[in-house]
């Protein structure tokens, strides 16, 4: 199926959903710290999404593949060697030096906004700091490729080059995705690949870019809960995610946070 660009009123709905998802990450930062459990973070985000944003948390009861149990919580919390889709848990208490990805997807009036960021718990190691920074740079370098006429492969190539230049590796089993009224839609947005290949970008397309970058080897494994993805070598992994719109002359980051002064602000 070709990727259908969105109409102006659909784009406006995506802007709203994106802004709300970003606001959850802006809210939760102050609550991350040693002694806090990932279950606590999940409850706070759930209450905020439902009560303050009058929205729904997309992960709750979500299932993607046949035979996969529904996701039991409202956000994903992926600590240290967890690559993605970590399940919040009251017994998982954060400790000094942990690094954590919080991934938020909200549904507002049927439209999805999907974004994640890394948080430090207390004082991170030098390696953790470097991995987290390089992974955010990978996201930004991917976003910089986005404009009408560019190829999806340009995004993957830019991300892969930056990660590998720093001797980190790119997870290949998961990618970004088209997003709109469907959470995980076409196209699949690979975080590796070759320039000039794949889908050609057109104004009105909305998709996520969400590189998962490992400090060690790229290989991952799925835990028996059928959700949690970890690095095979148990070394650190990091991820950052934005939902973006291809505009007539470039890109708009629908899930931009106020702290991201490096990104052009979304159109008013
Ligand atoms: N938010 C994740 C993504 O970026 C998907 C999480 S699916 C869930 O695509 F069910 F685990 F929440
Ligand atoms: Co996400
Ligand atoms: Co996503």
Structural features, described:
This protein is α+β, with helices and mostly antiparallel strands and 268 residues long. It has a single domain (8-253), classed as Creatine Amidinohydrolase (Alpha-Beta Complex). It is 26% helix and 24% strand. It is built from 4 helices and 15 strands. Strands 1, 2, 4 and 5 form a 4-stranded antiparallel β-sheet that branches. A hairpin with a 2-residue loop joins strand 4 (99-108) and strand 5 (111-120). The radius of gyration is 17 Å and the shape is globular. The model has no long low-confidence stretch (mean pLDDT 97). The structure holds 2-amino-4-trifluoromethylsulfanyl-butyric acid and cobalt (II) ion (2 copies). One cobalt (II) ion binds at residues 103, 105, 114, 116, 210, 241.
Secondary structure: elements and pairs:
Layout: H1 8-28, H2 38-52, E1 56-57, E2 76-79, E3 82-84, E4 99-108, E5 111-120, H3 126-144, H4 152-165, E6 169-170, E7 176-178, E8 185-189, E9 206-209, E10 212-214, E11 220-222, E12 229-231, E13 237-239, E14 242-246, E15 251-253
Antiparallel strand pairs: 1-4, 2-4, 3-12, 4-5, 6-10, 7-8, 9-14, 10-13, 11-12, 14-15
Helix pairs in contact: 1-2, 3-4
The structure holds 2-amino-4-trifluoromethylsulfanyl-butyric acid and cobalt (II) ion (2 copies).
């Amino acid at each position: 199926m070709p990727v259908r660009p969105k109409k102006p009123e659909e784009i406006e709905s995506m802007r709203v959903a994106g802004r709300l998802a970003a606001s959850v990450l802006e809210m939760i930062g102050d609550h991350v710290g040693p002694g806090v459990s990932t279950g606590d973070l999940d409850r706070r985000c759930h209450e905020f999404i439902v009560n303050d944003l009058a929205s729904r948390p997309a992960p709750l009861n979500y299932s993607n593949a046949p035979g996969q149990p529904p996701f039991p919580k409202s956000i994903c919390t992926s600590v240290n060697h967890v690559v993605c889709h970590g399940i919040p848990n009251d017994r998982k208490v954060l400790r000094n030096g942990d690094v954590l990805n919080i991934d938020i997807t909200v549904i507002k009036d049927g439209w999805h906004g999907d974004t994640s960021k890394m948080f430090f718990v207390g004082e991170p190691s030098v390696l953790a700091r470097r991995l987290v920074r390089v992974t955010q740079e990978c996201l930004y370098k991917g976003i910089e490729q986005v404009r009408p006429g560019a190829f999806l492969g340009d995004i993957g190539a830019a991300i892969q080059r930056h990660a590998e230049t720093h001797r980190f590796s790119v997870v290949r089993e998961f990618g970004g995705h088209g997003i709109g009224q469907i959470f995980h839609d076409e196209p699949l947005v690979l975080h590796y690949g070759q320039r000039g290949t794949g889908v050609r970008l057109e104004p009105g397309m909305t998709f996520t870019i969400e590189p998962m970058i490992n400090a060690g080897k790229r290989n991952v494994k799925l835990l028996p809960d059928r959700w949690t993805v970890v690095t095979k070598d148990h070394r650190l992994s990091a991820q950052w995610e934005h939902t973006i719109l291809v505009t007539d002359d470039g890109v708009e980051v629908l899930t931009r946070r106020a702290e991201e002064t490096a990104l052009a602000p979304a159109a008013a």
